[in-house]
Structure formats: C-alpha cells, structure tokens
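Section 5: illustrative case.
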C-alpha cells in the first residue's frame, strides 16, 4: 500500500484537509522565496546607500542622484529622499525657524519609515498564520481518519489490523503534511523577522544621524540669517 493510494482512497474530509495543507504549503513557499529575494536586495541596497551617504558627497548632489536613479529596494534612500525634500521645501518657504523645519523634516522621515516597515513586513503575518494553524488542521485530519477507522471497525464482526490500518495511515499522512507546511513557515518567519528588525534598527539609526546633520545645517543657516 503506497502513500499515493492512501491519499486517493482517503475519505473526502481527509482529502480536503490534505488539499488545504498542500495549497497553504505552496503559497507559503512562494512567499518565502519572494521575501528572501526582497530582503536580500534590501540589505544590499542599504549597504550601497550608506557607502554613498558617508563618502562625503554633498547632500544636494546625492539627492539629485537618488531622484535620477532611484533604488526602490533601498529603505534608507527613500527615507533620505523624503527628509531632504521636506527640509529643502521648508527652508525655501522662508519664515520658518530651525526647530519648525526639523519637526517637519522628521515627520516626513517618520512617515517614510512606516511605509518601509509595511513593505518589509509584507506576507510575514501569513507565514506566521500558516506556521501556527497548519499542525491543527493536520490534527483535525488525523482525528477524522482515526474516527473513520473505528467506525469501520464497529461494523466488522472480527477486528483485524487490516481494517483500521488504512484509516490510521491516512490520518498520519494528514499530520505529516501539516508539519511539512508549518515547519518551513515558522523557520522562515523567525528568520525574516530577525532580518526586518535589523533593517528597521538601521533605518532608525540613519534617521537620527541624518537628523543631526540637518539640524546643524538648519541652525547654521538661521544664525547666518540673523547675522
């Protein structure tokens, strides 16, 4: 008796459980591949942008470059673009004190950070859901298969292992498929969450450092205007 024949001859309920678990597994594997690709490109883009930012290049020139050739995987670049654009707009408007300029700039960067967080955490909740619910879905199939086996045993005048074995076997297959769907999802969720936390920490550190630079520029300009 092969695994394939057990699946084909399983009860409709157990087959439905297996189909749900298999579908969840395929979707989660696609999302794992998609998240791995995005996070890998995002990490590389972060390193490239930090090298450019700390190379001593003029901020206005860097702003022109990132607008001309934007890298949408670079969260720091998007935060820099949002902050510098708002900083330049408020300074050109005139009549704004340095603190007001910085408040508007930091608010713009904070909004950009939240958008980057949403992009980084995309699909992670689905992986967490698959990891936490798949074993229970598989357990439901297991319980149903064992119940089906005992019902078949009740209709027999002589209890033999061959009567209950197929139902128990199909129940164990449902459990195995549930674990097959859950384990990669849980491992990937934990790994991706760690990478996302690391990236967000870098983004926040960059925001603080960039704010300090702009803070000095804003106060220097205000001092020159008063002089």
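Designed sequence:
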């Amino acid at each position: 008796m092969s695994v394939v024949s057990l699946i084909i001859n399983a009860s409709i309920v157990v087959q439905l459980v297996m189909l749900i678990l298999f579908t969840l597994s395929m979707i989660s594997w696609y999302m794992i591949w998609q998240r791995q690709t995005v996070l890998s490109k995002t990490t590389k883009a972060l390193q490239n942008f930090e090298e450019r930012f700390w190379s001593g290049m003029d901020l206005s020139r860097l702003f022109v470059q990132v607008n001309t050739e934007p890298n949408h995987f670079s969260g720091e670049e998007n935060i820099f673009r949002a902050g510098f654009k708002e900083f330049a707009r408020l300074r050109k408007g005139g009549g704004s004190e340095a603190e007001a300029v910085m408040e508007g700039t930091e608010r713009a960067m904070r909004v950009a950070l939240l958008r980057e967080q949403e992009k980084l955490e995309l699909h992670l909740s689905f992986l967490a859901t698959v990891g936490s619910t798949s074993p229970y879905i598989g357990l439901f199939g297991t319980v149903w298969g064992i119940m089906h086996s005992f019902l078949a045993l009740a209709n027999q005048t002589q209890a033999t292992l061959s009567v209950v074995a197929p139902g128990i076997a199909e129940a164990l297959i449902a459990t195995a498929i549930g674990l097959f769907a859950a384990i990669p999802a849980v491992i990937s969720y934990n790994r991706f969450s760690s990478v996302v936390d690391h990236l967000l920490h870098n983004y926040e550190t960059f925001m603080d450092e960039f704010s300090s630079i702009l803070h000095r520029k804003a106060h220097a300009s205000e001092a020159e205007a008063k002089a």
